[in-house]
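Question thread 4412

I'm putting together a teaching handout and wanted feedback from people who do this every day. The idea is simple: show students a protein as raw sequence, then show them the structure tokens that encode its fold, then repeat with a second protein so they can compare. Below is the first pair exactly as I plan to print it.
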Amino acid sequence: SALFLCQVLQPSIVDVSLDIDQDMREWILQYYGSASRAIWTLFEITFSGGWPSYARPLVEKVHGLYALFFAMYVWVVVFAITRIITALFLKDTLQVANDDAELMIRDQQARKAQWTKKLHEIFTMSDSSGDGMLSLEEFKQVVQKPKVRIYFQMLDLQIQEVVELFGMLDGGSGQIAYDDFCSGILRLKGQARAMDVISTMRDCRAILDKVHSLEKRIDLLGGAACA
């Protein structure tokens, strides 16, 4: 397109018989007088959004048919091709983001499997009786080992927290199964702990609201009885 404009506008620059004023000839020379100038002008037309400034003078002062050329160029190149290129880049970006999300999911699954494996090792070391059930005495003995303490530190857990959890999960029997042990430990880890705290606070608020409502009803009944 740039070379085409450069060629067809040459007579408008050099042919003095054409009804084109000198200022317009100089303008054409400045923007379309050579191949490099025409290419740069078309580049600005394509990406700057100011194409009317480069097209209107040619349409109004040189020939009206240039309107057809610029209309086709803007429609095909500026709007169609650039939008297609933008859509392709956007598609690639979304695909990369989707791949990153899947990678994060796989990474979290791998981490969970890693922690579960380590908890299985702890449970196996703790279950000295080999009956598949873990007693608090067995657990207290194994948590004294440095390796076990390092495992719990990697899980961002304190030993005292785990002992308290054991007391909550054993149901008063003094023993806990492997699945209950692992699920309870993992619930204490990371964001799950914060979410459980928020859930507990919400439940406490609901209970408190019910207590206040019940208190008001009792007061009303007491007032009615006195009357």
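The second pair follows. I'd like the answer to focus on this one:
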Amino acid sequence: QNRPTLVRGKCGFASRLSGSTEMVERTERHISELKKVKMAGTSVSSVDQKEPWTLAQLGCGTAFTVARANSGLLYSWGRGDQGQLGLGIVEDVWAPRQLHFPGGRLVADIAVGFDHVIALVHGTGEIFSWGKGEDGQLGTGHSKGSLEPIPIVGFRHFIRCSAGDQHSAAIRRVGNKNRLYTWGS
């Protein structure tokens, strides 16, 4: 399927790790230790910007990386043979470069798959996608890739997104309920 599809019915999630209470206790202890560590912001400089930007989110695909700055701007670098960098080119780029969204939209969340990326736009809840699309993972209604961010037309009010190897998913807020949509193979 290459359009977002609502997942109906009840979904269950695992509440324990491998059924081991020891693993759960060790994980909880590790999390409480991490909470005690005060972390400083990470600053990164890119090729096309003189000023460093503060890293808010990072996603890694197959030999490429996409980063979201606190400002909502996106940067990408690495292997680009499938258009997964979103820069409008099919070539490798080895230093961060800023992606440009139509209308200057800012990004609230990103998800990186094997050779594709989806991004949730701040404010509208639109989802844009780019990269390899032959398995429908871009959600555009066809099986073509894209070298630049393109919107999933007709869908808004998404609040979270995720990407796998050849598929994607997002949670959409409809009224007072959250709905799960999936697409790709």
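Top answer:
Good format. For the second protein you could add a caption like this: The longest strand covers residues 49-60. The chain has a mean pLDDT of 81.
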